[in-house]
Amino acid sequence: MDEKDMGTDLAKVLISKEEIDAKLAELAELIDRDYAGRDLLIVGVLKGAVMVMADLARTLHSPVTMDWMAVSSYGMGTKSSGVVRILKDLDTDINGRDVLIVEDIIDSGLTLSWLLSNLQSRGPASLEVCTLLRKPDAAKVSIDVKYVGFDIPNEFVVGYGLDYAEKYRNLPFVGTLAPHVYGG
Ligand code: 5GP
Ligand code: MG
Ligand code: MG
């Protein structure tokens, strides 16, 4: 799917595929350096992080292992409540492991904050976070994120794994939607 398949749904491209690729290459270089000689497990948070995981993993030179978690915020609406339920847990025992959580976006940070304390309680050797996008203006909790792709304005974005009502995940870029898509 691409810009030309979007009809009038797309308002604008915020981050192009080329910018994403270049940023992931930068982040991969840092991660390769920081984890050199270690046995890194990268954990993707489904479903949004699928694209970041796939592209980041292929850009890394280190032989990482990959696992997945699916979590869901309880409650209604589009806002995160911070009360999180595990839909799919890790297959891996992370006790004593170097773990890097890979996220699509950090908005309020409530989901990630919950996830961090959940995983921390399993006794990993180290636990860090890599996110493609972060909305600094939306943060409700402060989280120490080691690898950040882009800080973006506090607006709703789709593409590159991120959905609106499960659509637009397969856009190769990150963009915003026209108001009519939301029924506006
Ligand atoms: P948080 O707990 O940080 O508020 O929410 C994190 C989750 O909310 C993300 O993993 C993502 O699923 C969703 N989310 C937050 N902001 C956006 C956004 O701008 N666009 C989309 N599509 N999802 C978002
Ligand atoms: Mg996510
Ligand atoms: Mg979503």
UniProtKB/TrEMBL annotation:
Which positions fall inside the Phosphoribosyltransferase domain? 18-164
Q: What is this protein called?
A: Hypoxanthine phosphoribosyltransferase
Question: Which top-level group of life is the source organism from?
Answer: Bacteria
Give the EC number(s) listed in the UniProt record: 2.4.2.8
| Keyword entries, A-Z | Cytoplasm, Glycosyltransferase, Magnesium, Metal-binding, Nucleotide-binding, Purine salvage, Transferase
Q: Name one GO molecular function term.
A: glycosyltransferase activity
Biological source species:
Streptacidiphilus cavernicola
Signal sequence segment: none
Q: Which reaction does it catalyse?
A: GMP + diphosphate = guanine + 5-phospho-alpha-D-ribose 1-diphosphate; IMP + diphosphate = hypoxanthine + 5-phospho-alpha-D-ribose 1-diphosphate
Pathway, per UniProt?
Answer: Purine metabolism; IMP biosynthesis via salvage pathway; IMP from hypoxanthine: step 1/1; Purine metabolism; GMP biosynthesis via salvage pathway; GMP from guanine: step 1/1
UniProt cross-references to InterPro entries, sorted A to Z: HGPRT (IPR050408), Hxn_phspho_trans (IPR005904), PRTase-like (IPR029057), PRTase_dom (IPR000836)
Q: What are the subcellular locations of this protein? A: Cytoplasm
Q: What is its main location?
A: cytoplasm
**Which cofactors are named for this entry?**
Mg(2+)
Family per similarity comment: Belongs to the purine/pyrimidine phosphoribosyltransferase family.
Q: Does the keyword Nucleotide-binding apply?
A: yes
Q: Which Pfam families match?
A: Pribosyltran
